[in-house]
Amino acid sequence: MQAVQQKLAEAGLDSVQFESRILLETVLELPYGAPLPQQPLTGAQQQRLAELTARRCAHEPLQYLCGTWEFFGLEFQVGEGVLIPRQDTETLVEAVLELRKNEPSTCLLDLCSGSGCIPSALSVHLSGVTGAVLELSPEAMGYLRQNLKRHAPQLECIAGDVLHPPAELLHRQFHIITCNPPYLTAADMEQLQPEVAREPETALFGGTDGLDFYRKLTPLWKPALRPAGWLVYEVGAGQAPDVEAILQENGYAQVHTVPDLTGIGRVVLGQR
């Protein structure tokens, strides 16, 4: 462990104790936090640990090396080509759980679904969730199908472009439409950490000011909301006032922002 930590530290990585433990658990195929065995690693395990350490020192995302990552208490398959689930997005899940907590059923549509962490978490924690998810990337779609099969097999998985949606989706009526769209600005993209730069650009870049998808999706998907249904977005730091304005300009009611645990406005929602 100390040798792994030293290599990670020399590569300029933070949290070397945590990361070395995660890499070792991955090699040993142990769940997070499980007791580590006392016996030394086999030759094959040592080789695997050295390989993973070298890849992490080259700034390959830790989550991709593990192949799974936790979100809202659930395990998700992740890897090259899919956006890694983040704690920020748990704020969106909590906002929807609050909106639908007393409802017997929820018809849900998740746009830009990626790993499927949002609809999966909602399906596990709400009763009677039905609906669909929409994802364009073939690389992400493989992970999305695996994760939905595990956590939300009742949801329909549709390959398509949120900006040019399948007609059948626009004619359906959903209680909730969720979306964590690409929202990084051009300036953000120039300053990405090496690890984030390994994630798909199509899931990150939201145009010069980061607001392109909010401007296009907000009017486009309004017909797919039931009367009194909610459109619920994740937004980047500092974007909440602009996204609120976009929703208001498009006739949404009760537009408001929900902060994340650090107090940053992270979720913007409005009602049809």
From TrEMBL:
NCBIfam families the record matches: hemK_fam, RF_mod_PrmC
CDD domains: AdoMet_MTases (cd02440)
GO BP: methylation
Taxonomic placement: Bacteria, Bacillati, Bacillota, Clostridia, Eubacteriales
Pfam families linked: MTS (PF05175), PrmC_N (PF17827)
Recorded catalytic activity of this chain's protein: L-glutaminyl-[peptide chain release factor] + S-adenosyl-L-methionine = N(5)-methyl-L-glutaminyl-[peptide chain release factor] + S-adenosyl-L-homocysteine + H(+)
Domain Methyltransferase small: 100-188
EC number: 2.1.1.297
Gene Ontology molecular functions: peptide chain release factor N(5)-glutamine methyltransferase activity
Protein name in the entry: peptide chain release factor N(5)-glutamine methyltransferase
